[in-house]
């Protein structure tokens, strides 16, 4: 197997903005929306209700008022997009060390398997048996990662054609799949049931949901798998791969020394505008914008915002040189897996210990949910800060 092209192998300085962007996403995950969704439930404040909505997932459709969305729906796209942005840097580092493309691909497949299994493990932590489901974000990244690695270093035209083909094929197989009767739990309150042509993307009756009812029952389980209550599916990884591919394209743009930094920001913003326009147009005509099954229109709609955020972080931090306070985000961004695992595995235990050892008034009052969300996150951040100071990084 030939080694990667030398022009693709030259290492460049680490992007502080990318670490800060990743850190911001991880901190939002760690603080669980600052507990604002819980706080808003018992409030009559219209503002708190709006903030609460922003820190929770809409029931099915992921947009409103053409360009409106819930911030919490953007966390996973940002997470997956950042994985893609980092790939050209990882690829260049390994190529600079003399690794062949074959060896790089072997590492990608190994990483993929570990991510998938780790996602299954996290999905099983509160179960009595292994939960062979693949909707956890780590599993979704793992399922798409090898295909992403295949496109690293390829021509932009090849990458765009591949992404467009995946989205078109995804839309087509959903659109051609016959409409089915919705189970009783899906029709309760009408949540997730779409009408007309959009009914092909209704909860529990769409192609991906039916696929899971067959595929996931091939794995050992004590009870028949009937569907994910929230409508999430294994096949989400197929269009979600394009979200990571968009990140890869952006990462290769940022690595390109022939493009001026200011021009990179403009290209990112132009790409975001184009994707938003196309995503909204599709969402109004032939493909609903649904995050829970990662519809093609959602790929473009959410992709626009996460690309615009990358432009903002890159423009402010790496181009303009803004540094105050950025280290708080960077510390979290350098150890994202450690922060994520702590949040998934020990948030409840950490909060219990804090309530044992801290006076009751700390958690009392209307702000209690916010305090309960913030304190464990502060503990987790201090752990990754210690890890960073001691140059300990959890990698796969």
Report what the structure shows.
Helix content is 63%, strand content 0%. The relative contact order is 0.15. The chain has 396 residues and is mainly α. It has helices spanning 6-9, 16-30, 36-41, 46-54, 75-96, 101-123, 137-151, 156-176, 184-187, 207-215, 237-255, 261-285, 296-319, 326-334, 336-357, 368-389. The protein contains 16 helices and no strands. The radius of gyration is 21 Å and the shape is globular. It has 2 domains: 17-24 and 70-322, no CATH class; 335-396, no CATH class. The model is unreliable at 1-9 (pLDDT under 50).
Could you list some keywords that capture this structure?
396 residues; mainly alpha; 2 domains; 63% helix
SSE string, helices as H and strands as E? HHHHHHHHHHHHHHHH
Oligomer: single chain
Determine the structural class based on helices, strands and strand pairing: mainly alpha
- Would you report the number of β strands? 0
> What is the averaged pLDDT score?
90
Largest sheet: none
Strand residues, percent: under 5%
Query: Can you give the helix content as a percent range?
Result: 55-70%
Instruction: Sum up the overall morphology in one term.
Output: globular
User: Mind telling me the C-alpha Rg?
Assistant: 21 Å
Helical element count? 16
Count of discrete structural domains: 2
> What are the segments in which pLDDT stays under 50 over at least 5 consecutive residues?
1-9
Cα end-to-end separation: 24 Å
Quick description:
With 396 residues, the chain is mostly helical. It has 16 helices and no strands. The protein folds into two domains: 17-24 and 70-322, no CATH class; 335-396, no CATH class.
